[in-house]
Amino acid sequence: MTGDTDPHGGPAPSAEGDTSTRVAVATMYRLTAGHRSAIAAATTLTLVGSALGLAQPLVAKHVVDASARGQVIWPLLGALGALFVVEAVTGATGRFILERMGEGVVRQLRHGLVARLLRLEMREYDRHRGGDLISRVTADTTLLREVVSQALVDLVTGSLVAAGAIVLMAWLDPLLLLLVAVTVAAAAVVVASLLTGIRGASAHMQDSVGAVAADLERALGALPMVRVHRAEEREAAGIGARVDAAYGAGVRAAKLASVMSSAVELAVQGSFLIVLVVGGLRVSGHTGSLGDLVAFLLYASYLALPLSSVFRAVGLIQRGMGAYQRIDGALRLPVEPTTPQVRAGHASTPWPAGPPVTRAQPVLALHDIHFGYDPERPVLRGVSFAVPRRRQVALVGRSGAGKSTVFALVARFYEPTAGTLLFNGRPATELTRDASRRGIAVVAQDTHVVHGTLRDNIAYGVPDATDAEIRRVVELARLEEVVDRLPGGLAAVIGEHGGNLSGGERQRVALARALLARPSLLLLDEPTSHLDAINEAALTTVMKDVAQECALLVIAHRLSTVQHADHIVLLQDGRTSAGGTHEQLLARSALYRELAASQMLRPGGEPGIRDRGGTDG
């Protein structure tokens, strides 16, 4: 998928480069697909209410004329009151239907955005900031709700009601209508000249709000670092600059909207004064009746509301287009494909039930893999190795050698630019990414622990896991002490980002989560980096036990981890430099001896230079 569809199933409209009101209205109308019956009902009710409102000046005219002739006016006053009540009821009902429809459109957009953002290609997360993408789901859709729930119907009904009022005013006094038309046309010229500026200012404001969200999310996500480096004021100043940019854009949009509103207001008031003066002179000169003047004045004042709603709707639609372009941009971002790149010759899935092509086939094999996050800067330049069934393979090398990139390719966050990646003997291109990941579990160096209970975190990948299954992985990951310590045990809430746990405890939670899925291949990124010597020894034992159930691929820096691997792969400058056991590599590879003797691999100690997960190339 390349993002060329909207959440309603058709091609997503793109308004890039076209700022006309016609295109903007068509785009906003398209968003209401699936809610057209609600729009029709609301429009009908609004028009009925407006027709009742248009009838009121005529009834008022008859009341004035009948009173001047000394006739009974109580029935006419009763009819006038009934018109007011029915108009209020129909108007309120129509407005409720519109508001509900607007909420439905926003819900649909948010569902589409959330589903899209969770399935984007990993490259897109490198190019776009998370807070800005979140802002498109929240702030931008909220602005669109007002547009689709009010502006579209106001534009249609306001135009029809204004047309009806103009027809009746022409019937009452064409000369006075001509004077009103001149003042309204002047206001329309002013409004048209401001619409493009309002749209641009609104888009700039929405972009700035998204930047505020992105910067604030970054700062809060690294709050301990911010506090330790006393960077609160610097971060506040940086985010404050984004806030000021949003403020400036909002003020500019408000200034243009104020000028537009004043132009409309002056046109309405000016036309009313012209009608009052000219019409009064004509009544005093006996060229018109007082009832006609009262009716015309009521229509002139009544015309103000639909005209104001039309101008306001046009301005709001242009503002909404700024938000829509950001939403449309997010909906067009490419997502991970849901079909294999190459159709397989057989349909069986490899994870976890599908067997390897032969017993001798390794769980994972890489053949001459090449890859670069930037095509001009390759990270992997020919990596080849295999992970046999129920064996532990360790990846070692200097920081930047490509170890974490290998993990990213195995998890199919990215696709190799050349070479072959095999799962159980089957090319990855024959499998969907979901099928490839079905038998893989990952324990990252920077563990992900989300707000919720300890049980929620452990059972994240297997939400229907039984208590016995959870107890098994708790014991395997040596989490019994943590469960006993936390109030509530497995039901304890562990805080945002696992703030109630130490780094080593978070890593063991991630290990328990991975083991619960019973993967065929377990990827461990420096599993002992946050563990003390006692827990490191315990984890080493766990890894031996796990290797009896599944294959392990481990990024390792500690010598103690490497020594227990069945096979070690040495990466150098994105290439497979050497492979073998610890003793074999000590004898064969000068680089491995250097790593073992340096701080890269230190027996029983803390790791020195470490890969930065996901940025080693």
From TrEMBL:
GO terms for cellular component: plasma membrane. The chain crosses the membrane at residues 38-60, 72-98, 151-171, 177-198, 262-281, 293-317. The keyword Membrane applies. GO terms for molecular function: ABC-type oligopeptide transporter activity; ATP binding; ATP hydrolysis activity. Residues 40-319 form the ABC transmembrane type-1 domain. It is a multi-pass membrane protein. Its main location: membrane. Residues 364-598 form the ABC transporter domain. It is found in: Cell membrane. GO terms for biological process: oligopeptide export from mitochondrion. InterPro entries: AAA+_ATPase (IPR003593), ABC1_TM_dom (IPR011527), ABC1_TM_sf (IPR036640), ABC_transporter-like_ATP-bd (IPR003439), ABC_transporter-like_CS (IPR017871), P-loop_NTPase (IPR027417), Type_1_exporter (IPR039421). It comes from the Bacteria. Pfam families: ABC_membrane, ABC_tran. Keywords: ATP-binding, Cell membrane, Membrane, Nucleotide-binding, Transmembrane, Transmembrane helix, Transport. Belongs to the ABC transporter superfamily. Lipid exporter (TC 3.A.1.106) family. This is ABC transporter ATP-binding protein. It comes from Streptomyces alanosinicus.
